[in-house]
Write a structure and sequence with these properties.
The complex is a heterodimer of chains A (128) and B (290). Helices cover 32% and strands 25% of the residues of chain A. Chain A is globular, with a radius of gyration of 13 Å. Chain A has 128 residues and is an alpha+beta fold. Chain A has a five-stranded mixed sheet with strand order 3-2-1-4-5. Chain A has a single domain, classed as 2-Layer Sandwich (Nonspecific Lipid-transfer Protein, Chain A), CATH 3.30.1050.10. The C terminus of chain A is likely disordered. The two termini of chain A are 19 Å apart. With 290 residues, chain B is α/β, with parallel strands linked by helices. Helix content of chain B is 34%, strand content 18%. Chain B is built from ten helices and eight strands. Chain B has an eight-stranded mixed sheet with strand order 1-2-4-3-5-6-7-8, sandwiched between helices. In chain B, helix 5 packs antiparallel against helix 6. Classes of the chains: A alpha+beta (128), B alpha/beta (290). The interface between A and B is medium-sized, with 20 and 23 residues.
Chain lengths: 128, 290
């Protein structure tokens, strides 16, 4: 999964009307780290407003999700192996770090699981 | 089954019949929902934390199983269609080992079951270890699904019950990854739906038993599988009770058998009933034949 594709998969989430609808009460900016590459993702009413690729100067965010490039690539496999198949599983196995104010992430957990697993099933946008 | 097709001979009811059972548990009157199907050796089925007996719908609809076994599932108090006892509104719900064992034994006695098999999953997979310790002579066999002697919490359980997070959405989303990615879509979402329907704080209250009160690590050597056989089956995608947790459990209980089930997660009987039955049939054959 190249770094360009990450931005594309995130912004194309706006084509998923059901995902946007489920995020309609969500306004948040979060930091996504894929190995050495950072993305500042702004969400407004469930729509991806912008994705800024690093290097970032003094980024402000509510929560951050950090994993290695290899960990995300494993997570994005169509049928990922046990332990790498779910964000909460990755937190338990310590391959994913969740930092900052977790409230918007947890309150919209299904939204973020679906958003971040989009590369797994590009045809449908992912529903896991 | 086609919804549009008009059945030629009456409505298309499934074999299971559900009734409400009045009984006392630890001296308190309760009203529990019990459903059952089939005839033969009784199997009591115990649902996971925050869910209910619908998780066993696959067993309840399997003709081969029902021809030889009486499959019984009840909803724990606070779960499914079972009521909490009167006065529930004055205290936080917390499941304990004592209350869980008492409830199971009260149901077994109320239904006058003679040495039933018990299948329990997750918290049910834990409580069968307590049954093995306390009442091995009362059961023909104990089958623990997703069974471990203890589980440490891996997220802050307070997320499950607080007014600024929707409990149903939270419980559904936090458990969704415990279902294997290969599970059929309809069964995956049926399994999640049960979680989304749980009462406020009930899943969290069950996890008090799962992560604290129900710890049996110090008593495993007392379990005697010669009195009652113990079978352990765990899905490879379960990160709550991992395959390693179950292997460790089997290693510490003489005579216990562990099977790791490929392509299944934490809710095998509900997330992919067909695949799970492939594993269960062999176990039941051995129990029935012994």
């Amino acid at each position: 999964m190249g770094t360009v594709a990450v931005e594309r998969y995130l912004t194309s989430a706006n084509d998923d009307a059901w995902l946007v609808h489920r995020g309609r009460f969500l306004d948040v900016t979060f930091l996504l780290e894929v190995g050495e590459t950072s993305y500042l993702v702004r969400i407004h009413r469930g729509r991806i407003e912008s994705v800024d690729k690093g290097p970032l100067i003094q980024p402000r965010w509510t929560f951050a999700l950090r994993a290695s490039q290899a960990a995300w690539e494993t997570f994005w496999q169509p049928v990922p192996p046990p332990g790498a198949h779910d964000l909460i599983a990755m937190i338990k196995t310590k391959t994913l770090e969740l930092d900052g104010d977790q409230h918007p992430f947890m309150a919209n957990l299904r939204y973020f699981k679906d958003l971040l697993s989009r590369p797994r099933t590009p045809a449908t946008g992912g529903t896991r | 089954m086609s919804a549009a097709a008009k059945p030629a001979s009456g409505p298309a009811f499934e074999p299971a019949v559900g009734r409400y059972l009045r009984l006392d548990i630890a001296g308190k009157p309760h009203r529990l929902y019990v459903e059952e199907a089939g005839a033969g050796i009784p199997i009591v089925c115990l649902h996971t934390a925050g869910a209910d007996g619908r998780q066993y719908r696959g067993l309840m609809n399997d003709a081969a199983l029902l021809s030889r076994f009486r499959v019984i599932a009840f909803d724990l108090p606070w779960h499914g269609k079972s009521s909490p006892p009167a006065g529930w509104q004055t205290a936080e719900y917390k499941l304990t080992s004592r209350a869980y064992v008492d409830t199971i034994m009260a149901v077994v006695d109320a239904l006058a079951l003679d040495r039933p098999i018990v299948i329990g999953c997750s918290i049910g997979g834990r409580i069968v270890l307590h049954l093995a310790l306390e009442h091995p002579e009362r059961f023909r066999a104990l089958i623990g699904l997703e069974s471990a002697a203890h589980a440490d919490p891996y997220y802050d359980l307070d997320w499950l019950h607080r007014p600024d997070v929707h409990g149903g959405e939270m419980c559904g989303a936090i458990t969704s990854g415990l279902i294997a990615p290969t599970a059929p879509e309809a069964d995956r979402w049926e399994t999640s739906w049960h979680y989304m329907q749980g009462g406020p704080g009930v899943f969290k209250g069950d996890l008090h038993f799962y992560t604290a009160d129900g710890d049996v690590r110090g008593r495993l050597a007392e379990i005697d599988t010669r009195k009652c056989p113990l079978y352990l089956l765990t899905g490879e995608y379960d990160y709550s009770c991992t395959p390693d947790d179950t292997r460790e459990l089997a290693r510490r209980i003489k005579g216990a058998e562990a099977t790791i089930m490929q392509g299944l997660g934490h809710f095998p009987m509900s997330e992919d009933p067909g695949r799970f039955l492939g594993h269960l049939r062999g176990v039941l054959e051995r129990v029935a034949g012994s």
